[in-house]
Design brief:
The complex is a heterodimer of chains A (about 140) and B (about 300).
Chain A (H helix, E strand, L loop, with lengths): L1 E10 L15 H21 L2 E6 L6 E3 L8 E3 L8 E10 L2 H12 L14 E4 L10
Antiparallel strand pairs in A: 1-5, 1-6, 2-5, 3-4
Chain B lengths: L5 H9 L6 H12 L4 H7 L4 H15 L10 H13 L8 H15 L3 H15 L1 H4 L22 H9 L7 H4 L21 H12 L3 H15 L1 H13 L17 H11 L3 H14 L3 H19 L1
Helix pairs in contact in B: 1-2, 2-4, 2-5, 3-4, 5-6, 5-7, 6-7, 7-9, 11-12, 12-13, 13-14, 14-15, 15-16
Classes of the chains: A alpha+beta (about 140), B mainly alpha (about 300).
């Protein structure tokens, strides 16, 4: 089994095919979208492939150390050009092909007009611990 | 000093002022509630090892505490309230667990504030089922039906409320908590005339926090119309430089924008309302609220397109 991170972006990903801001959808389209995401996660729990899913607020801050005895330096909010993570799902699957298949399904979540958003998702493999036995 | 019941002593110990809030909560659930470390970890969505460390550090902190005088009930109540307010996840229902522990506390100590907190919890809990739809989305209070409540808990809550409680107590002055248990986007039910002179005013007099005044603006909007509500909101904004800041954190009062959106909608200004709902959605602290507020913006935008 291998773990993959499916990353969803507020900004920074290529534009999806069905690119309409959510507050311009109908309430029913929003409900259908939310339901699709919940069903997707529930199905992966059922197949034993779901690890974690979290959503992030759009606003954040840069922070760094500023030397002994000084408070950390903060900067923000994030510049408009910054790549902005909206949330993620972690899956634990048998193969890279399966990870790509699932990311494709997640990207098909319905949006405006009930049509798939075709959202670009980033699929990132976890670095794992070295295997116990090497052959 | 009179002998303090062992159970009560355990409550005091687990809520000792030397503990951080998160440690006190964990220790109370473990030592008083008897939950396993795994259950507590799941309920708070942290790894089991993290929760185990938190509990053992808390135990070390209070290991030297001597009981030569009674503990402070207020610290115990604060911890129970934190547990109640945390929400629900994992196998353990933290709100139900908080009620169970507060009931047990009420059984070993005769204290009006304990009765007050228990009443507050039971009243919130009775309405809990009606607050969300089966799919987890929020239900605004005008849309809720009486049948959605948990009626069996309410009589006990009402009885607890009738017990005398000091003016500073939980039952009388606690602002509606800034949590998923109460949302100004789900305002109090429309009341018949007469409520205007009593409830909105008295809650402001008891604790003049921005959160209470925000809730008051919602109540005024229900009683006297959206213009009056917006005026109350404007008074909140202008009363002091920090009036839009939450007292505990340097952040705006939660749901301020959502309340403004709701009042503008009722006032017929759909464009402003839609813009504010979308803005409130971006600031929402949880997914249920964000989805709810986005839906509100979408509903108004769809109406404006027609």
């Amino acid at each position: 089994m291998a773990k993959y991170l499916l990353l969803k972006h507020y900004r920074g990903a290529p534009a999806p095919a069905n690119d309409v801001p959510m507050d311009q959808w109908t309430p029913q389209e929003i409900s259908a979208h939310v339901q699709y995401m919940q069903d997707f996660a529930a199905r992966l729990e059922g197949t034993g492939e779901f690890v974690d899913g979290q959503a992030l607020a759009p606003e954040g801050t840069w922070v760094r150390y500023d030397g002994e005895g000084r408070p950390p330096v903060t900067d923000g909010p994030f510049a408009e050009t910054k790549d902005l993570i909206a949330g993620w799902m972690v899956i634990d699957v048998d193969s890279y092909e399966r990870a790509v298949e699932l990311a494709g399904e997640l990207s098909a979540a319905p949006g405006a007009g009930g049509k798939p958003i075709h959202e670009w998702l980033e699929v990132r493999p976890f670095l794992t611990a070295p295997p116990t036995v090497t052959e | 000093m009179p002998a303090v019941d062992d159970t009560l002593q355990l409550y005091f110990l687990c809520a000792h002022p030397s503990l951080t809030p998160s440690s006190a909560v964990a220790l109370t659930l473990r030592a008083v509630g008897g939950l396993t470390t795994r259950q507590i970890a799941q309920a708070y969505l942290v790894p089991e090892a993290t929760m185990a460390q938190r509990i053992s550090r808390a135990k070390r902190t209070v290991s030297g505490v001597r009981f030569d005088r009674p503990g402070d009930v207020a610290t115990v109540l604060r911890v129970l309230y934190l547990v109640f307010n945390e929400g629900y996840s994992g196998d353990v229902d933290l709100a139900a667990e908080a009620i169970r522990l507060t009931r047990r506390l009420a059984a070993v100590i005769d204290h009006p504030e304990v009765a007050g907190l228990l009443a507050l919890m039971l009243l919130h809990h009775a309405r809990r089922a009606a607050r969300t739809a089966p799919d987890g989305s929020l239900v605004r209070s005008p849309s809720r039906t009486a049948a959605g409540g948990t009626p069996s808990r309410s009589p006990r809550a009402s009885r607890s409320c009738r017990r005398p409680s000091p003016a500073t107590g939980w039952a009388s002055s606690r602002p509606r908590p800034p949590s998923r248990h109460s949302t100004p986007t789900r305002p109090p039910p429309r009341r018949p005339t007469g409520c205007r002179s009593s409830r909105p005013t008295s809650s402001r007099d008891l604790t003049d926090s921005p959160v209470v005044r925000l809730n008051r603006a919602v109540a005024v909007g229900e009683a006297d119309g959206p213009r009056a509500g917006l005026a109350a909101l404007a008074a909140l904004d202008g009363s002091s430089p920090s009036s839009r800041l939450h007292p505990d954190r340097e952040s705006p009062v939660p749901r301020h924008t959502a309340v403004a959106a709701y009042l503008h909608e009722r006032d017929g200004d759909l464009a402003t309302a839609a813009r504010l709902y979308a803005e409130a959605a971006r600031k929402a602290p949880n997914l249920a609220e964000r989805d709810h507020l986005t839906r509100q913006a979408a509903r108004l935008n769809a109406r404006r397109r027609r």
